[in-house]
Amino acid sequence: MSSIFKVTMLAISLVFMAYCGAVQSEEKKAVASVPAKKGLNKPINKQSYSLGVSFGEYLKRALDENKKVDINLSTEFVLQGVRDALSGDKKLSKVEIEAVMKSLDKLTRRKHTELAEAKKQQAIKLEKDYMAKNAIKEGVNVTASGLQFKVLVLGNGAKPTRSDRVKVHYRGTLMDGTQFDSSYKRKEAAEFGVSQVIKGWTEGLQLMPVGSKFSFTIPSALGYGKRATGKIKAHSVLLFDVELLEIITPAPISQQ
Description:
The chain is of the alpha+beta class. 48% of the residues lie in helices and 16% in strands. The chain folds into two domains: 3-113, Helix Hairpins; 141-248, Chitinase A, domain 3, CATH 3.10.50.40. Strands 1, 2, 3, 4, 5, 6 and 7 form a seven-stranded antiparallel β-sheet that branches. The chain is elongated. It starts with a helix and ends in an 8-residue tail after the last strand.
């Protein structure tokens, strides 16, 4: 669906809402005196009502999205447009209306772009501030890449290499404490190649002797970056508690 069509549908939605609002006050007494489901036993009336409900729900979603980018249309002039369309006495020509709708479409796209950029910059700032505060906490180590780790339990086994396959237990959370993954919750340890995971894990695992438990604070550059996946939004800091149980050597050869 093209953006201009979406805006046109939004304009129609607003017109419909305004028109309904205008007639509602005039029909209020009459409607109040009629049982709510009167006439809905007739198939054609039930179909008509269902179509109205479906359209109304679409309108609500469209209006909610519109509000997010702070575009507020005048109900008074929307209603005037309805009256003029019904009477055939439009104050603007078809060419003028099309030009206005294209302008509204352009404004909507610009507003969405600005909102997306503002959210991106906010996420980047939150990440930067969080990493800076965490870096100075007691026991936190920072590598050249920006990975932050803290030794919770130091084992005495060997350290894995990039070519190894490992068995681990782990729990992953976001900055706000939201848990997005946990092998503990599944009650089953995970197995994978050291080089087959996000960069923060690949680097961090090679710092851990078998039997260790570390906490990792992984910046988005070593995680999913600008991508979003599941509960993980773009530019997210990832927090992991990782327990290295075993090294399985060697890891399967990548087919890529």
